[in-house]
């Protein structure tokens, strides 16, 4: 494996776009082989996992690994060597549908790329191309705004929750950036936020299925379909033992392999999200497969009563609480016996008590309609907090165990 700079990365991706299916398969096999070889040499966890794997192997022979196992063994999952790669930026550059149209604007910004991510949150140690800056999602928003104004990015990658935060600063005029492309990833991008971003920033907003942990899995096309970046990411539909499923068989697991990420390699790892694969060709012209993401399993909150189990999707809480005046953001923390602590960010601190009372009543009513009795709903001293590891902001945190 060797270092890939932005220019080379862009060329590799453009070349792949023109390849025949057979050539594509071949290059993916080579990259997969190179990654496995790298991992067993530079990574304790994989060298142990692959100790019975021969020198010649097919992809299906390589043991799959549970994501939870990697997370529990972060100390040995980290490689002793890292190879810099600008593939994520190259993917966004080539596979952004506004790119051809906005190419000159992109150059005017000196092709600057800013990623607001959980860079301090460990799972990313890659050295990036010099046109790329990674800002921590944990920075106070004022400081983020200051640094963004200084960097003036052409491309901006961020979680929707961060973009939502930045929107207010753009509206007030303190955030002055004029990106060519905003790429949302890590969390679901809803239509309201997408429209608001397009209106406020006057640029293309592209949704991706991506995370610092496993890379840019899929990028959205003009038709709104998420095409897998299958030159660098392999998604497999597997049975319970990690073997490829036969045609028509329902997969038990989705396995992901990232072919460029060397810091914490991802090879045949189980994905936490539910993915649907589509067979129809997409009219946009991209022949790579496209997928849709159905909610992650942990987006559903399960409540047990004496007679039944009630499952509520975390978005349902948003649809009831988002209507409350002055409540900018909330986070429900669920404790044993359905005790709820509510974290709030409010527009006016002097109204905090009143806003809480409204939220509390709304929440209680909503849960009652669902058949769930909340023991107590109290106001939390904290405002909503991001996950320390991956930087994501969840509306509901389940601390009942
Ligand atoms: Zn398409």
What is the CATH C level class of the largest domain, in words? Alpha Beta
Overall body shape: globular
Helix-strand topology string:
HHHHHHHEEHEHEHEEEEEEEEEEHEEHEE
**Helical content, roughly?**
25-40%
Kindly name the structural category.
Answer: alpha/beta
Instruction: Strand order, main sheet: write it out.
Output: 2-1-3-4-5-6-7-12-11
* CATH fold assignment of the largest domain: Rossmann fold
Distance between the termini: 43 Å
Put simply, the count of helices is 12
Can you name the CATH architecture of the largest domain? 3-Layer(aba) Sandwich
Radius of gyration over C-alpha positions, nearest whole angstrom: 22 Å
Poorly predicted runs are: none
Rounded average pLDDT: 88
Bound molecules: zinc ion
Strand tally is: 18
Strand content: 15-25%
Taken together, the total number of domains comes to 2
